[in-house]
Design brief:
The chain contains 2 helices and 24 strands. It is α/β, with parallel strands linked by helices.
Length: 419
């Protein structure tokens, strides 16, 4: 329902039938003219048809409820508006609203409409709760703003400053005065400093001081065929594929009977070979015995197994054994003349035993490749000597390889891509 209050005259703008027995349901919207703007508190006043009962409601947000007590039965309700600021009072005429008979059955006593003072108290309480909630929200927002400001200040304190568009050298992670350059490694100071970097011009490699020695940072290797260079990867791949071929591939084109004389003085037809190899069943002076027994110097021509890689039983024996390792191990005769593939997530340690424990023949070669991502470190048992460039004993780059060669009872060379 909507009533227009033009100065002191009330007219109906919108209305639908109203019925007795309704409770806290019928709301009236008052459209007040500008003459009422000077009053801060404006009230709706409701009279029973005989003026024997009067109830006042605050007009809040231009609205007020019709009191339950006046519409319990079919009747008429007189509606007016008034305002009183203590010095003057403004009133309107009364509008006569008909209340038709409703379906509500009497017997359940409705809750009385609160008096005007209770309404004032409820309104003040609601406003206070709203103010408290607003203050709490404001406090939360202020705390959030403070936290964000502190975070921003912390981030700003960690940033590098620009001076004329350039970051000052003092705020760089490494200043130019912390990089020392020398013609070659031998000119480095005997004791370095941990916060400085050292460059050798002759090799263009960089180093840092690790507390007791210089550690190379560049980690690069050069290609070549010397002890200080790495072998070409395509050559290594070809050698690996050749070494791992089975007898059915027969890369040397040997027949199953080894008939006739070989190009290198080995005759396996039961006759005499011209260059110190005796195949007649007796012992030859340089250690080649083809009588079906074991020969002391790596050539076993019986029809069983050759200690290293010479098998003359009629089938081809590969020149190198392919061996896969996934954890730390100590070298054994199984790895002699073998190609050992090391694959581990963390550092794998390969230990060289004493000659008294495992008697590898002199000039035994063992190739080791780092197939996994973990480093491969060669470790010498006490009493064993490993000779390598710069005493490097680690294969650090994936798919890099190194070779061990036994040159004395407990002395080995380590050659390859080492760091």
């Amino acid at each position: 329902m909507k009533l227009n209050v033009s100065n002191e005259i009330i007219d109906i703008l919108e209305n639908e039938p109203k019925h007795s027995g309704s409770k806290d349901y019928y709301e009236i919207e008052f459209v007040l003219s500008s003459e009422w703007d000077e009053f801060t508190s404006i009230n709706a006043i409701f009279h029973s048809d005989d003026l024997s009962s009067t109830i006042t409601h605050l007009i809040v947000d231009d609205k007020a409820l019709i009191p339950n007590e006046l519409i319990e039965e079919k009747t008429k309700v007189l509606i007016g508006v008034y305002a009183d600021d203590g010095t003057k009072r403004k009133v309107s005429n009364l509008y006569n609203l008909a209340i038709d008979q409703g379906s509500y059955v009497l017997g359940a006593e409705p809750v009385p409409t609160p008096d005007i003072w209770s309404q004032y108290l409820a309104l003040v309480t609601a406003k206070a709760d709203e103010a408290t909630a607003s203050a709490t929200t404001a406090t939360i927002e202020a705390n959030r703003a403070t936290t964000e400001a502190d975070r921003a200040a912390a981030e700003l304190s960690n940033k590098a400053d620009l001076v004329n568009g350039v970051i000052p050298e003092s705020q760089l992670p490494i200043g130019s005065d912390e990089i020392l350059e020398y013609d070659d490694f031998s000119l480095f100071p005997e004791t370095g400093e941990s916060n400085k970097y050292y460059i050798a011009y002759d090799t263009n490699k960089s180093y840092r001081w690790a507390g007791s020695n210089y550690v190379e940072l560049s980690g690069g290797v050069s290609l070549g065929e010397t002890s200080s260079t790495a072998h070409r990867g395509d050559h290594g791949k070809t050698a690996y594929e050749h070494a791992t071929k089975g007898s059915e591939d027969n890369p040397h084109n040997l027949d199953s009977k080894f008939a006739g004389k070989s190009n290198t003085d080995h005759n396996h037809d039961g006759n005499y070979a011209p260059n110190s190899h005796n195949h007649d069943g007796s012992y030859s002076p340089d250690g080649h015995n083809h009588d079906g027994n074991y020969s002391p110097n790596d050539h076993d021509h019986n029809s069983v197994y050759s200690e290293i890689n010479h098998n003359h039983d009629g089938d081809y024996a590969p020149s190198t054994k392919d061996i896969a390792k996934t954890d730390d191990f100590t070298l054994s005769l199984e790895e002699a003349e073998g190609f050992v593939r090391c694959n581990k997530l963390t550092t794998m340690y390969v230990t060289i035993p004493l000659n008294s424990s495992v008697a590898f023949p002199l000039n035994t070669d063992i190739s080791i490749i780092k197939e996994g991502i973990g480093n491969v470190s060669i470790v010498a048992t006490g009493g064993v000597t490993i000779n390598s460039v710069d005493s490097n004993l680690t294969i650090a780059d994936q798919y890099s390889a190194a070779t061990l060669r036994k040159i004395a009872a407990d002395t080995w060379y380590l050659i390859g891509a080492l760091s």
